[in-house]
Amino acid sequence: FGADDLESPPPDISNLLCGRSVALRSLVLHNGRIPIDYRVPMNQLTSLDFKVTFRESTTFETILTEGIHLNTLRIKCIVTNACRMSSIFRTHATALPLLRSFQFDVTDAHRDVDDGDLFPAITEFLRAHPRLRSLRIAKDACVHTLGYNAVVWSVLPTLADLAALSIDIPQDLTPALSSWLIPRTVVSLHLRF
Predict the structure, then answer these.
(1) pLDDT at residue number 176
(2) Under 8 Å CB-to-CB from 144, ≥6 apart: which residues?
(3) If we measure between CA atoms, which residue out of 39, 36, 37, 52 comes closest to residue 4?
(4) Helices of type H across the chain
(5) Are the C-beta atoms of residues 129 and 138 closer than 8 Å to each other?
(6) According to the model, what pLDDT value does residue 84 have?
(7) CA distances from 104 to 5, 13, 159 (A)
(8) Which bin fits 63, alpha (ψ -120 to 50), beta or left (φ > 0)?
(9) Are strands 164-168 and 101-109 parallel, antiparallel or unpaired?
(10) Are 136 and 105 in contact (CB under 8 A)?
(11) DSSP string covering 59-82
(12) Residue 15's pLDDT is what?
């Protein structure tokens, strides 16, 4: 489901998902107004690609607590103060034990957002998932209050199976040092300065 039309009510997907809970393994939702609730068989999914503005914490917490079979999680989001994602990442650091591919893109943040622990919390979450094969961590250049710094890169040497990496180089990390932190197993690399 595409575009976020904020003027109309969210689309009703209950008829679409009804009866498919056993078979559905992969889900792509690029409309952040569709609620993740009992109709989405989170505990059966192996892949979730989600573009969203997190207006509350329940949706994100549901993904981490009920997505027990997820091996691919792609989140592209706008961060708001309504969802304190750093505390959810820390509380559920060992969630998603089968995770092999993780993507977290912050495309924007509301002006009043001040969650300087978000990216450090994501780093701790990633430490609990050393079997990752693919990792993408990115933030829009205008987002400055979420704690994206060299600490994020400190997790890279612990990811011994990492083959694909897409990541921003923070201002407090020199390119020369960053090359030492990238695991030698990486065969696909995308860096943003």
Answers:
(1) 87
(2) none
(3) 52
(4) 14-17, 58-66, 85-91, 118-127, 150-153, 175-181
(5) no
(6) 87
(7) 23, 25, 16
(8) alpha
(9) unpaired
(10) yes
(11) HHHHHHHH-TT-SEEEEEEEE-TT
(12) 58
Burial class (CB in 10 A: 0-12, 13-18, 19+), 60: buried
Q: pLDDT tens per residue, the chain (193 residues)?
A: 444 554 555 556 555 665 555 678 998 888 766 666 556 778 889 999 999 887 778 888 989 999 999 999 999 998 888 788 999 999 999 999 999 999 999 998 888 888 899 999 999 999 999 999 999 999 998 788 899 999 999 999 999 999 999 999 999 998 889 999 999 999 999 999 8
d(CA 190, CA 82): 32
CA angle 162, 158, 76 (to 5 degrees): 55
Position of tokens 């990216």?
119
In whole angstroms, give the CA distance from residue 154 to residue 97: 21
Strand positions, DSSP E, the chain: 26-29, 47-53, 72-79, 101-109, 134-139, 164-168, 188-192
What's the rounded Cα separation, in Å, for the pair 169 and 11? Answer: 38
Q: How far apart are CA 119 and CA 57, in angstroms?
A: 17
